[in-house]
Amino acid sequence: MHRLEYRGYDSAGVGVVTAAGGLRVVKKAGRIANLERALAGARLDATTGVGHTRWATHGAPNDRNAHPHTDASGRIAVIHNGIIENHAELRARLEAAGVEFASDTDTEAVAHLLRAWLDEHADGTIAAALRAVCQQLAGAFTLVVVDAEQPGAVVAARRNSPLVLGVGDDEMFLASDAAAFIEFTRDAVALGQDQVVEITRDGYRITDFFGAPAAGKPFHVDWDLAAAEKGGFQYFMLKEIQEQPAAVAATLSGHLINGQVVLDEQRVDQQELRDVDKVFVVACGTAYHSGLIAKYAIEHWTRLPVEVEMASEFRYRDPVLDRQTLVVAISQSGETADTLEAVRHARAQKAKVLAICNTNGAQIPRESDAVLYTHAGPEIGVAATKTFTAQVAAVSLVGLALAQARGTKYGDEVAREYDALAAMPELIERALTVTDQVRALAGEIADSRAVLFLGRHVGYPVALEGALKLKELAYMHAEGFPAGELKHGPIALVEGGLPVVVVMPSPVARPTLHQKLLSNVAEVAARGARTIVIAETGDRAARTLAARVLEVPSAPALFSPLVSVVPLQTLAAEIALARGFDIDKPRNLAKSVTVE
Ligand code: M6R
Asked: In 3-state terms, what secondary structure has residue 497?
């Protein structure tokens, strides 16, 4: 449960079928530590059970609404991720039949429905009950259930929310991701859409919701326990920032074969790639920012028009999609509901979908026509860091693959860009050396009311990412703007002492743009802002003008976000720590957003 806590940490609970034959449920609001205190000294004499960490959707995060939920007699325990969209209707029907609810959740209805079905089917199994109940549910759900009267079995079902089976020796596991069980087994099976699985000590059986035999997707977890642990760091996020050189190197590795950029999975042929006449990039949060960077690279290398859209908005505005549209869906988890629905919408309109994902076998890559995995390893900190830089590397590979397929770049040009990308891990390593300076700066500005971030060209998405990190970790008002847009309104926010962080382009590679940014630094400094500039090593003009300069190594313009984002990630983490917050588990957030 600790390894899954990053997915939700409003409350936690367990429900076990005890050797004595009953069900024991213990649940507490807050972190798992509260549950541990409640369980201290308890002997949970059991071999089957369920445990859950919650990110509240329906019902406040208190003891009552924590999972598991049970039927009235406390025979069946249910845990749930997702949202049961027809819960109000189900609840009304159950209440009309005399059922009393003990919580405000959408989940509890499932426990009562299971019990009602079992009461009507004297010889029915809990797996059959779950299949029947799933047929009545709308929305997204992973459900895991134990029944005190059918000990030795755990049953689970999924629709639009992840569920992975771990296959051990004389033991089986079910979890939202493999981190929960890699200590015991690395042999796993990803459950498919609308499947039910029943596990017993030594086997498992998968069916669809109607009882027909079905199969999941077996895979071997290729990272080890150390990757999912802190390894001497106080926080996962600090470790993950340091892991960025390795994450980018692993993402690039093996993708240039005989001078050709290759993806991990490709179910579209070269002709279909050649026929692409426009590209949409859809993603959320940090992944959206890597998508904004993709636009610069793909348009520059392929001359294809690229639109970048927040996945949560995409399908609601009837975008113009057809067979010649390529939709690039970027998602660390591969299970973000908004991005998944955007993928489904695009495919329904016959567009091709290429997924960039960090999670092997997740739903988004499974439903896509082509896949490029970011091999960043598990990211446990809720704030995306190493997966962002891995995504920036991956979108560059996608741009090169498209340029190659369309003939807008010759093989040797593609190989040269790839080599420049392959040199980036070393530069990120050097960018990481600013950590001490950033820590000192963080202490100075931790009490500010707000921070502005400015950039132009690829520096603009980096500014957005710096602002997002600060908002989510330090709970400070932060905004990212294109620097040129500032004077069209936002400059009114600038007042004496306001920290303004500016992402400078290279004075050598982009002299005109550099000059423009210098003017923007001067404009805010003239109004009393405390200017902090992320600049290429040796940028004397920036040094002269800005109050503070954080230097990063010189890099090709399109790849420069890989280094310029590093001090911003560290700045947000250090400010949050100075303000006394848990940077791995920021308030109100969860790592994977599996609800729309
Ligand atoms: O798993 P995904 O990449 O689809 O997640 C998208 C966003 O929810 C995610 O990037 C979020 O914005 C991060 N917490 C930002 O640090």
From this structure: coil
Indicate whether 297 pLDDT > 90.
yes
The DSSP code sequence of 176-197 is: SSGGGTTTT--EEEE--TTEEE
Q: What predicted TM-score, i.e. pTM, was given to this entire model? A: 0.85
pLDDT tens digits, residue range 102-147? 999 999 999 999 999 999 998 999 999 999 999 999 998 999 999 9
Q: Are 351 and 327 in contact (CB under 8 A)?
A: yes
Q: Which residues line ligand 1 (CB under 6 A)?
A: 284-287, 331-333, 336, 339, 382-384, 468, 472, 592-593
Please name the residue that has the structure tokens 């660390």. 332
Q: Which of 55, 585, 593, 595 to mutate to test the pocket of ligand 1 (most atoms within 8 A of CB)?
A: 593
Name the 3-class secondary structure at 327: strand
Question: How far is CA 252 from each of CA 244, 255, 277, 286, 424, rounded to the nearest angstrom?
Answer: 12, 6, 26, 20, 10
Secondary structure letter of residue 273 according to DSSP: H
Alpha-helix residue ranges (DSSP H) falling in 224-278: 236-242, 244-252, 270-275
Q: Which helix (H) or strand (E) holds 346?
A: helix 337-348
Atom of ligand 1 nearest to the CA of 339: 4
Taking the C-alpha atoms of residue 567 and residue 432, their distance in angstroms, rounded to an integer, is 7
Q: pLDDT for 11-55, tens place per residue?
A: 999 999 999 889 999 999 999 999 999 999 888 889 999 999 998
Predicted confidence band at 437 (pLDDT cuts at 50, 70, 90)? very high
Distance CA 350, CA 324 (A): 8
Give the mutation target among 177, 332, 386, 584 for probing the ligand 1 site: most ligand atoms within 8 A of CB: 332
Side chain identity at 484, as an amino acid letter?
Answer: G
Closest CA relative to residue 500, chosen from 468, 529, 465, 457: 529
- Dist. CA 573–CA 595, nearest whole Å: 27
**E strands present in 273-364:** 278-283, 306-310, 325-331, 352-357
